[in-house]
Amino acid sequence: MAEVEEKTGMEQGQLLSQSKRQPGEKKIGEALEKEREYQIQKGSPAPFIGREHVKAVFQEYTSRYDCEDEKIRLKVEHTYRVAQLCEDIAESLGLSQEDVELAWLIGILHDIGRFEQLRQYGTFSDAQSIDHAQYGVKILFEEGKLRDYISFYEKDEIIKAAIWNHSAYRLPPELDEKTLLFCRIIRDADKIDILKVTCDVPLESIYDVSSQALYQSQVTPQVMDAFFEHHAILRSLKKTPVDNVVGHVALVFELEYTRSYEIVAQQGYLNQLLQFSTENPETKKQFVELRHCMEEYLQKTCKAAAETLEEGCDDH
Questions:
Q1: Cβ neighbour number for residue 141 with a 10 Å cutoff
Q2: Residues 311 and 303: beta-carbon distance below 8 Å
C-alpha cells in the first residue's frame, strides 16, 4: 500500500467534500465545517480528531437502526459515556492532547458492532450470536467505515487492537506498550459504565430471566471461588442468574488505573450491586462474604473506594 500522509481536521473536511456524498453526509460535512470555523476563530490549529465530525458520523450510522428500541438508545448513551470516561482516564495519566483525543475516539467506536449484532440476532449476548468486538473491527476495517470518522491511517493498528480486545477476558501478551495503554483505557472505561448500566436497567431485562429466578437463585461455588481470587469471572462458570450479578461486580478486580477506582467510588454503583436484594437466605450470606472480600481488596487498591463501600454497608 502506498504511504498515506496524516491529515488534519481541515483536510478531512476537504476530502469529504471532494468525494461523492451518500445520504446523511451533508449533515456530517456541515458539522466538520462548523468545527473548522470555530478553530479558525480561536486562532488555534485544527484538532487532531474532529469531535463534532466524529459524533455526526456516529449519529448518522446509528440512525439507521430502530431508534424506538430501548436497547439501541441505551447502547448509544453507553457509547458517549464510555468516550467521556476514556478522556477522563487519559487526562489523569497526563497523556498528550493527541492521545487524549485518540482515547476518546476509541470510546466512540468500541461498541460499533453492537448495533448490527442486535439487528441480525436480536440480542447483545455474544454467546448467543457473534463476538461484537470482532464484528466491530470487521465493520471499521474490512468494510472501511473507519475512514468515515478519520482520514489518516497512522493510528489504525492501535484502534483495531483496542476495539478487538476491549471485551476480551485477557489481553494478548504481544501488544506493545503504546497499544497496551489504549487497550487498558477502553477496558477500564467500559467496565466502569457497565456497573452503571447494570444498576440503571432492570436486571431481569439484562439477563433475560424472571424475577423469581433471579432473586431466588444462589451463587455457584465456582463463581464464589473465582471472586475470592480477585479476577473477572469466565462466562463458562456462570450457571445461575445471580452469577451474572457477581460477574459484573468482579469487573472491578480488572481495573488498571487509580482514576478508574476513584470514579467507581464517586458513582456508587458498585455498592448498589453488592446490596443485591436476594430472597434466598444462603445467597444473603454469600453476598456478605462478597462485600467483605471487595472491601479488603479496595483497601489495598483504592482506599477512597473502600470507604465508600463501607459507608454504603453501614446504611443497611
A1: 16
A2: no
CA distance to 12, 22, 140, 258, per residue, from 229 (Å): 48, 52, 36, 20
| Cell numbers representing residue 108 in the block | 466512540
Cβ 126 vs Cβ 93: under 8 Å? no
What is the spatial distance between Cα 123 and Cα 131, in angstroms, rounded to a whole number? 12
Spatial separation of the C-alpha atoms in residues 42 and 36, rounded to whole Å: 10
DSSP notation for 66-97 = -TT-HHHHHHHHHHHHHHHHHHHHHHHTT--H
The answer to whether residues 195 and 88 touch, using CB atoms and an 8 Å cutoff, is no
Contact between 269 and 199 (Cβ < 8 Å): yes
User: Per the confidence metrics, is the pTM higher than 0.90?
Assistant: no
Instruction: Tell me which residues of the chain have a pLDDT lower than 70.
Output: 1-48, 303-316
Unique residue bearing C-alpha cell 465545517: 33
Contact 179, 185 (CB under 8 A): no
